[in-house]
Specification:
This protein has 190 residues and is of the alpha+beta class. The protein has seven helices and seven strands. A hairpin with a 2-residue loop joins strand 5 and strand 6. Helix 2 runs parallel beside helix 4 and helix 3 crosses helix 4.
Length: 190
């Protein structure tokens, strides 16, 4: 089977904040813009993805910049990223690398794989199975909200449309946002 038969190429459509949790969410979209896949990520990974999207040069390299530089020095190329599974609300990805004639497939968090793919201009794929599972999860959550009286599916989607869209912030503003972040902003809150 080819990648096209089992997976769809997706692009980073933007970064947003979940209106309920204020957690960063990377939105993957297909070429037509009809398929959207939100993936909740950490602040550190969101910062890394945002800096790659906006091509912001940091004073010191971020972890994904360092990994990308190491790959370059070792002649390792990021071929593609494939988001392969959705288990218990957690996405799994594979980072496919090439080193000369050798292909390497590494288990990765989607956020890390996406950050590296952006730096390498490598394609990002999502399996059709993951897209179907994610759609079923969204549909089930919408139905549950309707049954509990917490609002209709369209009302639940409304906050997502009013989010702060990080993709539309200019480079200067991103540099200011990134400079204002403190160490506590990068800790995962339980």
């Amino acid at each position: 089977m080819t990648d096209e038969e089992i997976a769809i190429e997706m692009f980073v459509g933007g970064l947003v904040l979940d209106p309920n949790t204020q957690a960063p969410v990377v939105i993957l979209k297909d070429e037509s813009g009809k398929i959207n896949l939100p993936i909740w990520i950490g602040v550190t990974e969101a910062t890394s993805i945002a800096s790659a999207i906006k091509e912001i040069q940091m004073a010191r390299p971020l972890t994904h910049d360092l990994m990308s530089a190491i790959f370059g020095e070792l002649n390792v190329r990021v071929q593609r990223v494939v988001i392969t599974e959705l288990k218990e609300s957690t996405y799994y990805a594979e980072l496919i690398l090439s080193a000369g004639e050798k292909a390497l497939i590494l288990d990765s968090r989607p956020s890390d794989a996406i950050a590296l793919a952006l730096r390498a201009s490598a394609p990002i794929f999502v399996t059709k199975q993951v897209l179907q599972q994610a759609q079923m999860t969204i549909n089930a959550a919408s139905a549950e909200c309707s049954e509990t009286g917490e609002g209709s599916a369209s009302e639940q989607e409304e906050p997502m449309q009013s989010h702060q869209d990080f993709k539309n912030i200019d480079k200067k503003k991103w540099a200011e946002i990134l400079e204002e972040l403190e160490a506590d902003d990068f800790k995962y809150k339980v």
